[in-house]
Predict the structure.
Amino acid sequence: MLEELKRSVYEANMELPRKGLITYTWGNVSGIDREKGLFVIKPSGVDYDILKPEDMVVMDLLGNKVEGDLNPSSDTATHLELYKVFLTVGGIVHTHSPMATSWAQAGRGIPCYGTTHADYFYGEIPCARNLTEEEIEEGYEKNTGLVIIETLQGRNPMHVPGILCKNHGPFTWGTDADNAVHNAVVLEEIAKMNLMTELLNPSIIPAPQCMQDKHFMRKHGPNAYYGQKKS
Ligand SMILES: O=C(CO)[C@@H](O)[C@H](O)COP(=O)(O)O
């Protein structure tokens, strides 16, 4: 089972350069086996051109390295905080994909302007605030995870499977590592479309709520509202 997870997380990591979401060593993908209480993550600083399945690092939910010769990703503490709270999440991705990272650097959330967005993300894809100096001092990666959780407070993470971290970049998640990468690709496409949409129509407003509801509910069921059930 663990070998299967290492292989699937390795394959998911290799999708990032294939889909143009990262350059060099940027970004990372992890996947969790909740029965074992272990998650697998990309090693830190390893170029995807030379990454191998056996390079994957196995971590426990206390943040200890259980298996692997290399250091885990520098973002491991962020993945860990999210796994501890987002209990339905099976995989997490961080990238520096250019368009989503540009929205993150601009400190803007990504509004829902169309059905492409609404099929995967219910409502705005938020931009999490900057960390304070104290939070950075205390632990940048851990507090990045806590600020992501704070920003999504009250929303089902599987209804908004991604977020932007201001002046940093996007994090996405999903049912497993492969699904998390899928959501990272969709997020980058939406970021690209929205930039063009705002250029073509600077006074654009979000798509009608009834359209957003229809498109999201048709894939995610009738109760996929912001934390409350529609009567
Ligand atoms: O966001 C950052 C650096 O700004 C990191 O995500 C790096 O892009 C990848 O770090 P490793 O996973 O290789 O430690």
Remarks:
- The first helix runs from residue 2 to 18.
- The two ends are 42 Å apart (CA to CA).
